[in-house]
Design goal:
By secondary structure, the chain is mostly helical. About 90% of the residues lie in helices and about 0% in strands. It contains four helices and no strands. Helix 3 packs across helix 4. The two termini are about 35 Å apart. The relative contact order is 0.05.
Length: about 90
């Protein structure tokens, strides 16, 4: 497998196949995101301290991750612009 992964055409096809698998999984996850958010909202005020804390931590973790991804996307766009300007 390692030898095949050194072949550019195989490596590109392998990455493409992995991307397809991931996109399919993400599409499935996206179908239940609303339910997950509703569950977190319910648990933020369910009067069970442990559940409320877990829900709050989950929401904060997701917010931090989303901000990090947004920041990274902005940096990538800036780098693309700079690269295009120098090309």
């Amino acid at each position: 497998l390692f030898a095949w992964l050194n072949e550019p055409r195989f490596k590109a096809a392998y990455r493409s196949a992995r991307r397809c698998v991931l996109e399919t999984a993400l599409a499935s996850i996206n179908g239940v995101v609303g339910d997950a958010v509703a569950a977190l909202k319910r648990n933020l005020t369910c009067k069970v301290s442990a559940a409320e804390v877990r829900a709050a931590v989950a929401v904060l973790d997701m917010a931090i991750a989303a901000q990090g991804m947004a920041d990274l996307a902005a940096e990538v766009e800036e780098l693309k612009t700079e690269l295009e300007a120098t090309a």
